Amino acid sequence: MNMKPERKRGPLSMEERNYIIKNVHEQSVEEIADILNRNAAPVEKFIKNNDLRGKDSVGDQDNHEILLSKLRHRPYYYDIRAQLTDEELSYFEKNWVFLIAQFREDVLYSEELSLKQLIIVDVLMNRSMVERRAHQEDANRLQESLDDEMAKHPDDRDRDYILNLETQLAFARTSITSYTNEHVKLLKERRDIDKSLKTTRDQRVKRIEDGKTSFSGWLKTLEDEGERVKWGEYAELMRLSLFRAMERLSQNHVYEDEKVDIPYLTVESAKMNEEKQNG
Question: What is the per-residue pLDDT for 82?
Answer without folding.
Answer: 92
